[in-house]
């Protein structure tokens, strides 16, 4: 399998400033992280606030550069200034606040913003915009103002804007944190669909457990380090360990875990209601 | 409500006016404004009214949208009307009390001035209602492109304008939210004299500024993440091209201007 992202011994530090603007110390946001991500994977990065997960995401498309260590996207080192636009084209990014990442005043023009910057010819921009809007199911809204859309819809437009740049991978930095449950489901379904049908690698940064069960790999971060790494089932069967990192497990998993502690013979790492029902039926 | 700002609020509908090249609409608005100031006499104003009415009709934008934009200039309008009434002394005298003199000439001038201002605002509001702000800045960028030769950052200015336009409604909504949050905790924005009310606005502006800067920093990052690196080597989804309708529009506008000039010369 092709490794699309390779991170080797990444360290990121930023200076802390006192009241007078003097440097009072350094904070290490990422502490010696190494990680490899396969092409086509759906990787969720979990972590409590301040765990370094967002900082890690911003290293993947050269918004932040490593203090020490190296990040490769494909064959390109993110520190190489000659490749910065190639890197950003290949690793698109969707941010948390849907309002603060939509540039244009019309949905289709916003989707075209990335290709325009890349110098794509006009005819091809139209093709890309059509295709991207279809991929996220927003074609009906193409001539509307983004201000009139719901949070989930705005976020889908932002995703379309990234898809139109034909990236190999999409990095999503807590894309659902400001959305209602309905909008959250909307966005996650869109991303899953893109991952499945277009084979785009997805790196989803989040702290909602329910979004993680669809990933095929979960990475847990705490204090700037990677502390757990595995499939959702593996990760969620380690309930106590997750709790020590101040993370919750999905409700169903928690229920199954408690039942098991009380002596019911249930398997580890139950992720959905259906699985729990099946397991309970077998027991009965 | 403070949300009633029509400036920079595109009204999405299909119409011949909407389809015109933004450069045509920009130049057209300019020609219309010049024509308004050239206009003199009742006939000229009637023609201007008919002209404006037919353009509005063709644009399919409801009149109420334009009227809403007028609210912002009510004070200005009152000022100019009052000044015209009191300071233009022409024709027969109607009232003379102390140092106040009102004449027919003053009244007529005031009326024309008011109509002129109202048409001016309606004309430019019509342009912003029928042109997406992005088209508008595209049009400006292209029409002013020659300034690049003397190192004026035309593209950057156009980009700043279009972003400002996009964020006006968002910031207005945010102001509304902050105001309500502060009113819920007992802040009073409505009573007191002008100075007291201005003072009450300070705690409103601080959070608004902070949030605006935060948004700006987020947006800059999002733009860079989408490969934005200035106007160099940038292509357009909708490049500007003059069509036959644009030429026709120029013809109509110039004819209108010529007519106004002729009427003035004749008057």
What descriptive keywords fit this protein?
heterodimer, A: 284 residues, alpha/beta, Rossmann fold, six-stranded mixed beta sheet, four-stranded antiparallel beta sheet, 11 helices, 38% helix, globular, B: 267 residues, mainly alpha, 2 domains, two-stranded antiparallel ribbon, 10 helices, disordered N terminus
Describe the structure.
The complex is a heterodimer of chains A (284) and B (267). With 284 residues, chain A is an alpha/beta fold. Helix content of chain A is 38%, strand content 25%. Chain A has a single domain (3-231), classed as Rossmann fold. In chain A, the strands form two sheets. Chain A has a six-stranded mixed beta sheet with strand order 6-7-8-3-9-10, with helices on both faces. A four-stranded antiparallel beta sheet of chain A has the order 2-1-4-5, covered by helices on one side. In chain A, helix 3 packs across helix 4 and helix 4 crosses helix 5 (151-163). The mean pLDDT of chain A is 88. Chain B is mainly alpha-helical and 267 residues long. Chain B contains ten helices and two strands. Chain B has a two-stranded antiparallel sheet with strand order 1-2. In chain B, a hairpin with a 2-residue loop joins strand 1 (93-97) and strand 2. In chain B, helix 3 runs parallel beside helix 6 and helix 5 (74-87) packs antiparallel against helix 6. The longest helix of chain B is centred in the last third of the chain and has 32 residues, at 194-225. The A-B interface holds A 61, 63, 85, 88-89, 92-93, 95, 97, 99-106, 108-109, 112-122, 125-126, 129, 143-147, 161-162, 165 and B 10, 12, 132-134, 162-163, 165-166, 169-170, 215, 218-219, 221-229, 233-239.
């Amino acid at each position: 399998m092709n490794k699309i992202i390779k991170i080797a011994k990444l360290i990121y530090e930023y200076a802390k400033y006192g009241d007078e603007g003097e440097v009072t110390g350094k904070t290490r946001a990422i502490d010696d992280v190494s990680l490899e991500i396969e092409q086509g994977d759906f990787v969720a990065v979990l972590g409590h606030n301040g765990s370094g997960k967002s900082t890690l995401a911003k290293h993947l498309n050269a918004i932040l550069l490593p203090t020490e260590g190296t990040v490769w996207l494909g064959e390109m080192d993110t520190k190489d200034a000659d490749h910065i636009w190639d890197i950003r084209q290949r690793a698109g990014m969707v941010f948390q606040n849907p309002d603060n990442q939509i540039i244009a005043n019309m949905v289709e023009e916003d989707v075209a913003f990335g290709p325009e910057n890349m110098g794509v010819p006009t005819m091809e921009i139209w093709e890309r915009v059509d295709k991207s809007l279809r991929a996220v199911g927003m074609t009906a809204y193409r001539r509307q103002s983004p201000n009139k859309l719901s949070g989930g819809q705005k976020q889908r437009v932002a995703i379309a804007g990234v898809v139109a740049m034909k990236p190999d991978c999409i990095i999503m930095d807590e894309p659902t944190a400001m959305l209602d449950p309905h909008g959250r489901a909307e966005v996650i379904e869109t991303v899953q669909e893109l991952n499945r049908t277009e084979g785009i690698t997805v790196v989803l940064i989040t702290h909602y457990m329910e979004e993680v069960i669809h990933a095929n790999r979960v990475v847990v971060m705490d204090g700037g380090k990677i502390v757990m790494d595995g499939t959702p089932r593996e990760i969620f069967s380690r309930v106590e360990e997750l709790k020590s990192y101040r993370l919750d497990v999905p409700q169903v998993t928690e229920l199954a875990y408690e039942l098991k502690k009380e002596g019911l013979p249930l398997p580890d790492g139950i992720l959905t209601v259906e699985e729990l029902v099946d397991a309970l039926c077998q027991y009965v | 409500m403070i949300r009633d700002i029509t400036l920079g609020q595109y009204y999405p509908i299909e119409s011949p006016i909407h389809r015109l090249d933004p450069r045509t609409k920009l130049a057209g608005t300019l020609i219309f404004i010049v024509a308004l100031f050239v206009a003199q006499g009742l006939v000229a104003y009637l023609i201007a009214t008919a002209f404006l009415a037919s353009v509005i009709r063709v644009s399919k934008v409801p009149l109420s949208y334009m009227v809403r934009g007028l609210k912002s200039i009510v004070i200005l309008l009152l000022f100019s009307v009052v000044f015209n009434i009191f300071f233009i002394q022409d024709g027969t005298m109607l009232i003379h009390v102390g140092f106040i003199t009102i004449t027919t000439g003053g009244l007529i001038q005031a009326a024309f001035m008011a109509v002129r201002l109202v048409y001016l605002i309606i004309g430019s509001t019509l342009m912003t209602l029928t042109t997406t702000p992005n088209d508008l800045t595209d049009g400006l960028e292209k029409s002013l492109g020659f300034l690049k030769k003397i190192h004026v950052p035309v593209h950057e200015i156009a980009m700043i304008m279009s972003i400002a336009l996009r964020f006006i409604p968002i910031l207005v909504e945010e102001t509304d939210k902050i105001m309500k949050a502060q009113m819920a905790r007992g802040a009073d924005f409505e009573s007191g004299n002008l100075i007291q009310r201005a003072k009450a606005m300070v705690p409103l502006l601080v959070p608004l500024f902070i949030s605006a800067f935060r948004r700006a920093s987020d947006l800059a990052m999002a733009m860079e993440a989408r490969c934005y690196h200035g106007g160099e080597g940038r292509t357009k989804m909708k490049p500007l091209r003059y069509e036959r309708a644009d030429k026709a529009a120029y013809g109509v506008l110039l004819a209108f201007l010529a007519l106004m000039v002729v009427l003035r010369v004749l008057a």
